[in-house]
Design a protein that fits this description.
This protein folds into four domains: 64 residues; 86 residues, Thrombin, subunit H (Beta Barrel), CATH 2.40.10; 104 residues, Trypsin-like serine proteases (Thrombin, subunit H, Beta Barrel), CATH 2.40.10.10; 92 residues, Pdz3 Domain (Roll). The protein is built from eight helices and 22 strands. The chain is an alpha+beta fold and 408 residues long. A hairpin with a 5-residue loop joins β12 and β13. A six-stranded antiparallel beta barrel has the order 1-4-5-8-7-6. Strands 9-10-11-14-13-12 form a six-stranded antiparallel barrel.
């Protein structure tokens, strides 16, 4: 009756598992193809509507939906599951980064011993004071880079005890090789060899959104080698009023007191920044900064070779900003209030004194130390500049010769 066609009322033999799988795959493919056709049809209507309504954003939306559907079909394969698709990357895992770099991170500790103070007929004993930070092993023969503020209590203090604690807990007495207070950098030296020097990267190649790993000793040596992870939040940040690099790396990797002088690393385990808790925000979370290594490395190299930063011009002036409110309150001009003048500097030779207000250099207004740094960067040792100075109600000009900054 039904000829060569099977009787629909007659029980058919069961379909094998393989056939069922093929049928299911076929159904998935059919659905996907149907989806593409439906999507293309919808896209066609969308394009017509977009052109008719001159709405180009609708065209872009439809194009994106078509591409999404096409990519979906490409993933449909009976032998490849989505979870097996791998993404290639040249970034090492954080565990690998930590294992690679932790031996290159040191602890730096400054101890000021207790002493007997005589005040007239009275005397008393001061308590011993200890501060600590982090450092990065720069060379295998014991040069270690850190922040200037980490070791500043040991500068010109013969009683201070400066020590370096390595990752293997070995302790060394250290000496200050040199420092750059202007950019909050310093180098210390220990008598050791065969040390694991850190690999330095190129901070000029950084991009916002890259992984950032910080390794240091937050809150003291009891937490030595702590690892925190975040991202590069921003580049070329400027923080006025701080003695540090003009442009900084911003990261949300946690940086706490004790992390100063430690390493900020990229995904390859290369040092791309010198972390500093000094310039990290204490009022909000995730706002931390590091000095770019491409800026710091030449300074470290100069300090190791010469004991100071070679060929850097200096005025010899340290000062504070006279704000608009202070200007009105004290009836003085806005500018840079001189708080200190280095002996033998160009400023001292020009007759500039503590209490003067620098209002301009070469006719350009000066309102902060950052303004003065910018002037230095655009000139060389030996250049002469005209400074406009306010003193005791009158303004006058002096000629200042930039000399080489050897004092850090």
């Amino acid at each position: 009756m039904y000829g060569q066609y099977p009787d629909p009322f007659q029980q058919q033999p069961p379909v094998s598992g393989k056939q069922t799988k093929k049928i299911r795959i076929g159904i998935v493919i059919v659905i996907a193809v149907f989806s593409i056709l439906a999507g293309a049809l919808a896209a066609g209507f969308g394009v017509y509507y977009a052109i008719d309504g001159k709405n180009m954003s609708e065209i872009e939306k439809m194009t994106g939906e078509i591409e999404l559907l096409q990519n979906t079909v490409k993933q449909i394969d009976s032998d490849i599951a989505p979870q097996n698709i791998k993404i290639d990357t040249d970034s090492a895992g954080v565990t690998v980064i930590a294992e690679k770099v932790k031996p290159s991170i040191a602890g730096i500790q400054v101890t000021i011993p207790s002493s007997r103070v005589q005040n007239g007929i009275f005397s008393y004993d001061t308590e011993a004071q200890t501060s600590s930070g982090s450092g990065i092993i720069l060379t295998s023969d014991g040069y270690i880079g850190t922040n200037h503020h980490v070791i500043q209590d040991a500068i010109n203090n013969p009683d201070a005890i400066l020590q370096v604690v390595l990752n293997d807990k070995s302790v060394y007495n250290a000496e200050i090789t040199g420092f750059d207070s202007e950019n909050d950098l310093a180098v210390v030296k220990i008598d050791a060899s065969g040390l694991p020097a850190a690999e330095l990267g190129d901070s000029n190649e950084l991009k916002v959104g890259e992984i950032a790993v910080a390794i240091g000793n937050p809150l003291g040596l009891q937490f030595a080698g702590s690892v925190t992870v975040g991202y590069i939040s921003a580049l070329d940040r400027n923080i006025n009023g701080e003695n540090t690099a003009e442009t900084l790396i911003q990261t949300d990797a946690a940086i706490n007191p004790g992390n100063s002088g430690g390493a900020l690393l990229n995904g390859k385990g290369q040092v791309i920044g010198i972390t500093s808790s000094k310039i990290s925000s204490t009022s909000v979370e995730g706002l931390n900064f590091a000095i770019p290594i491409s800026f710091a490395s030449p300074i470290f190299n100069d300090i190791i070779k010469y004991g100071y930063v070679k060929d850097r011009p200096a005025t010899g002036i340290t000062g504070e900003t006279v704000s608009e409110m202070m200007s009105i309150w004290y009836n003085i001009p806005q500018g840079l209030y001189v708080t200190d003048v280095d002996a033998g500097s160009g400023a001292a030779d020009a007759g500039i004194r503590t209490g003067d207000i620098i209002t301009a250099v070469e006719g350009s207004p000066i309102k902060s130390m950052s303004d003065l740094k910018a002037i230095n960067k655009n000139h060389s040792v030996g250049d002469t500049l005209t400074f406009t100075v306010y003193r005791n109600g009158s303004e006058f000009s002096v000629t200042l010769t930039l000399n080489e900054d050897k004092g850090g």
